[in-house]
Design brief:
- The chain is α/β, with parallel strands linked by helices and 291 residues long.
- Helices cover 36% and strands 20% of the residues.
- It is built from ten helices and nine strands.
- Strands 3-2-4-5-1-6-7-8-9 form a nine-stranded mixed sheet, sandwiched between helices.
- Helix 2 packs across helix 3, helix 5 packs parallel to helix 6 and helix 7 packs antiparallel against helix 8.
- The longest helix is centred in the middle third of the chain and has 27 residues.
- It starts with 5 loop residues before the first helix and ends with a strand.
Length: 291
């Protein structure tokens, strides 16, 4: 098994690593290496918690994030995506690993729509909102089922760039996932999932109990900005998800004489001493490697 050192080096920059029970946001343009960094973080869970992490892909345009290809190339990891035929599975089946334990869920892969409110008329907004609500049960099942099986890391990928976070349906869904699933006591997430069948499953809920503050969340956001210098001067809205993040990592292009390179910077980190340098990195066969 090939192991990249990129996430280990980033852990050192952060004075011990990304904190469980806290939100980490990675910002950068398309193709800068965010997804590879996210997969390295998830795979590290195999060694540290005994289970690889999970990916919730919010992409709605139909373009692939290459999760499965990267996972296979970097780690010989066959990424298992939760199939659509599991929708409507009996809630009591959530305790079975073959039902609950999947590596990825891509809810909106065939919608092909933009996710900003300003791009939609009234009827389109209503339809999109209804589609989100229909898929919340499947979203809860994916996260809760995996956490009950020992998963302690998740990556939220496919966040498209918008001028204002408040204008994005994706951020609205993320806020629900973050506050109503990731940062909520396990028995209350179970109540949302089982609803009227909660009492019948309460004994199993307690047997599969997990602490919410043991869950690590890495959110990958695509930006309009390509250059790292532009990301460093980016304004954060009051109430923006970035304002509430524990850690913010910026990834962008940098000019090196007549050539372009890549570099990252930890713009914000609470909880431990942090290296505030600008670190160049490259994408190699084994993934993202800091220089």
């Amino acid at each position: 098994m090939r192991q990249s050192t990129g996430i280990t080096e980033l852990d050192e920059m952060l004075g011990g690593g990304l904190l469980p029970g806290a939100l980490t946001v990675v910002l950068g343009a398309t193709g800068i290496g965010k997804t590879q960094l996210g997969l390295q973080y998830l795979h590290q869970g195999k060694e540290q918690e005994g289970e690889t992490g999970i990916i919730f892909d919010m992409t709605s345009r139909g373009d692939t994030q290459s999760h499965a290809d990267y996972a296979m190339r970097l780690f010989d990891w066959t990424l298992r995506e939760r199939p659509q035929e599991l929708i409507g599975t009996l809630p009591s089946d959530i305790w079975k690993p073959e039902v609950a334990r999947w590596d990825a869920l891509h809810q909106f892969q065939r919608t092909g729509r933009r996710v900003t409110m300003t791009d939609m008329d009234f009827d389109q907004k209503k339809e999109w909102k209804a589609d989100l609500n229909r898929k919340l049960a499947e979203t809860i099942a994916f996260f809760y089922g995996n956490f009950c099986q020992g998963v302690r890391r998740c990556v939220i990928d496919g966040i498209e760039p918008t001028d204002r976070a408040s204008d994005s349906f994706q951020f609205e869904l993320f806020e629900y996932i973050y506050h109503q699933i990731l940062r909520k006591d396990a028995d209350w997430v179970a109540r949302d999932f089982f609803r009227i069948e909660f009492r019948k499953n309460e004994e199993q809920v307690q047997k599969h109990f997990y602490e919410w503050n043991s869950i690590g969340c890495l959110m990958l956001c695509t930006t309009h900005e390509v250059m790292l210098d532009d990301l460093l001067t980016r304004q954060i809205e009051s109430g923006d998800v970035l304002a509430n993040a524990n850690t913010i990592i910026l990834m962008g292009k940098v000019r090196e004489g007549s050539q372009m390179g890549r570099a990252l910077h930890v713009a914000k980190h609470r909880g431990s001493a942090c290296d505030d340098s600008i670190r160049p990195y490259e994408i190699v066969e084994s993934g993202l490697k800091l220089l």
